[in-house]
Amino acid sequence: MPLPRITALTLNVTDPEKLAAFYCDIMGMRRSDEAGTVTVGYGGEGAKLELVASPVATPYRHGRNDRYWKIAITVPDLDLAYEQLAARGISVTPPGQFRDIAYMSHLADPEGHIIELIQHTFQGKPLTRKGNGTLPLGGGARIGLITLRTDDIDAELVRCRDELGMSYLSRQDLPDLEFYLYFLAFATETPPQPDPNAVENREWLWQRPYTVLEFQHRLQGSINVTHREDKGAAAVKIDQRGYVKTVLR
Q1: CATH code at 78?
Q2: Which phi and psi (to 5°) does residue 82 adopt?
Q3: Rounded Cα–Cα distance for residues 131 and 76 (Å)
Q4: How far apart are CA 100 and CA 39, in angstroms?
Q5: Are strands 5-13 and 48-53 parallel, antiparallel or unpaired?
Q6: Domain range holding 17?
Q7: Which of 123, 140, 200, 214 is the most exposed place for a label (fewest CB within 10 A)?
Q8: In the β-sheet with 48-53, what is the strand arrangement from edge to edge?
Q9: For the chain, what is the domain count?
Q10: What is this structure's pTM?
Q11: pLDDT tens digits, one per residue of 162-191
């Protein structure tokens, strides 16, 4: 019997067709509409994006204390992915190694949703494979992370680990920035090190073929939760052996 898995992130957007074109033409996703909903993704075990037209006129604006933060797309060769995006006129930050966490870059889609690009390996480490210049983002892209914010990580762990059965894979502490990162997924794999704080688990984490749920535990400020019909993220969908649950609020 297959494991439960994170199957989709639902985004309320202004123009699903236009946004789908961006994700397919620029980011290399494939369209596979389901039940009349515009849906894009990379296939395989990773989550998809469901793009739902919202009647709300106010455009999406990301806030630093919003419950929803971003998706992260993992790639084998970030330098090539960056070169391709920049060549197409996409505003994307140059790749950089962020501490002992990840070699990463950032951009936003046309409606303002944040996209993080993470290389499978740290800067200067051997690539898992060299990118293919004929493929979007160099090929091998996956929706590796869906990131939510929280001010009560204990409650999140109870729900996701204890009630839903997710595995607690990694913790990454940034106390000087006043937040901590927690990573959970439906997985039977064992990380390289049993200690979730181990740096050795981080590159391994960016190479998973399935989508991982990340929580940014913020130590300051309350978390803003939007209404379900507002622009932005509306649901993270989890398929528990044919029964779909939503986790976001």
Answers
A1: 3.10.180.10
A2: -60, -45
A3: 7
A4: 34
A5: parallel
A6: 5-246
A7: 200
A8: 30-31, 38-41, 48-53, 5-13, 232-240, 243-246
A9: 1
A10: 0.96
A11: 988 999 999 999 999 999 999 999 998 999
